[in-house]
Write a structure and sequence with these properties.
KIB1-4 beta-propeller domain-containing protein, alpha+beta, single chain, about 450 residues, four-stranded antiparallel β-sheet, 10 helices
Length: about 450
């Protein structure tokens, strides 16, 4: 009873202080609650748009947090939901679906419908509920969007993992009869699990997707509203590497032996004449002489399109800007990529080394050489672009199986570059049989 009386007395004292100050606390509360009286909430629209555009250019989720500051900011700025796919500004380009390992493939019952994503620039993790993986398989991650294939109907959909927006495309099986005109081996036609996708959006909001089909050395496209995929009537000698960049699909044609590789750019079909797309050969951007660059790969790093490969002696890694080669400059090799660490292994990617404690910046990890021996057989070789020296990321080999647990973050990131393991619940190792069939 004594405690109750003490609390009542304290409350009375607090009320008396508020009344003695002439209601200052009440007026302050009203000012803070009124957006028109708040300095931040009353920012000029032009200034607010400028800040929003810069935040959005940095990261989509930062933009979402920006809009959550107050009602005025939320009303003034565009909402990503409903426009996540059709507006390229809202594509989560820096995000990659994270391979869990431990047999936990996307859609595994133990994950309860959740999937984790990893930011390649900041190292941030987010967990999103995506129950669609129960009957879909993920094929690629263009611009951070998820390219999903329905397990039975093979219908393709493009899913924005953070807004939930979905764009549907024709079944991938619709391409089989058309490819049969050019390829007699039907089992080879059906092998479309490994694709590289490029997404573009025209002025009226039509989404077009181009798929590079490495095993068939061809490209196919479909737009929203189409009933089937359209493959090219022409084919490449050897589709060695493909990368989406600026709405186009850049391809390395060749890459083997002493024959120079060609860098091709494949643009989406023009709205005025889409029927001619399949017969018009791609534009050759440049040609890579073998004496300058062997086994070239495409990678996007620091918002630039780069070519990375070996020198003629196969002992050093060399970098070229595609823009320099396009201008005829073949002597200007790139000597620094800053804090970026580039991973080369089928699907190539650049990651900020500040989020990878065991990998230094300005380096290149060559996943394709795990079974080779540049830094020791069965290890992940790492090349220091500044010093020109080789080292290895891990102390032990992983030829027949993955490294012992717990897995390092670097090993998870390297798994993203090998799609046989990326969505299978398995962690990268040299024995590819470990990843076969695990996603089904």
């Amino acid at each position: 009873m004594r405690n109750v009386k003490a609390k009542m007395a304290t409350h009375a004292v607090e009320q008396g202080i508020s009344l003695h100050q002439g209601g200052t606390s009440c007026r302050l509360s009203r000012r803070l609650a009124d957006p028109a009286q708040s300095t931040w909430a009353s920012l000029h629209t032009d200034l607010l748009d400028l800040i929003a555009s810069r935040v959005l250019a940095s990261d989509l989720l930062d933009y979402v947090r920006f809009r959550a500051v107050c009602l005025g900011w939320r009303v003034t700025t565009p909402c990503p939901r409903g426009r996540g796919v059709v507006d390229p500004c809202f594509h989560p380009c820096q995000w990659m679906m994270f391979p869990e390992g431990g047999g936990l493939y996307p859609g595994h019952p133990a994950l309860l419908g959740y999937v984790r994503f990893f930011n390649l620039s900041t190292g941030t993790f987010v967990r999103v509920r995506l129950p669609g993986f129960r009957n879909h398989s993920v094929l690629d991650c263009p611009d951070g969007l998820l390219l999903l294939r329905h397990n039975k109907s093979t219908v393709i959909c493009l899913l924005h993992p953070f807004t939930g927006d979905v764009v549907l495309f024709p079944p991938l099986s619709s391409i089989f009869p058309q490819l049969a005109k050019f390829i007699s081996d039907f089992s080879k036609i059906q092998d479309t699990r490994f694709v590289r996708a490029s997404v573009s959006v025209n002025l009226v909001g039509t989404v077009t997707m181009m798929l590079a089909l490495p095993g068939l050395d061809r490209v196919a496209y479909a737009s929203t509203g189409d009933r089937q995929w359209t493959p090219t009537s022409w084919k490449m000698k050897h589709l060695y590497s493909a990368l989406p960049f600026g709405g186009s699909l850049y391809v390395v044609d060749g890459g083997w032996g002493l024959e120079p590789s060609r860098i091709l750019r494949i643009d989406p079909p023009e709205d005025s004449n889409p029927s001619s797309w399949s017969v018009i050969p791609p534009q050759m951007v440049t040609q890579c002489p073998v004496k300058l660059l062997r086994m070239p790969q495409l990678v996007e790093c620091n918002s630039e399109l780069l070519l990375v490969g070996y020198d003629s002696g196969h002992s050093r890694i060399v970098f070229f800007r595609v823009a320099d080669l396009l201008n005829g400059v073949t002597t200007m090799q790139l000597t620094s990529i800053g804090d970026q660490a580039v991973f080369i292994g089928g699907w190539n990617m650049a990651v900020n080394s500040k989020s990878l404690p065991s990998v230094q910046g300005n380096s290149i990890a060559i996943i394709n050489e795990i079974g080779g021996g540049l830094a020791g057989r069965g290890t992940l070789p790492l090349y220091d672009l500044g010093s020109g020296t080789w080292s290895q990321v891990f102390d032990g080999p992983f030829l027949d199986g993955p490294m012992p647990r717990p897995y390092s973050l670097v090993l998870h990131v390297a798994t993203c570059c090998q799609r046989l393991f990326w969505n299978s619940g398995k962690i990268l190792c040299f024995n590819t049989d470990v990843g076969l069939g695990a996603e089904e």
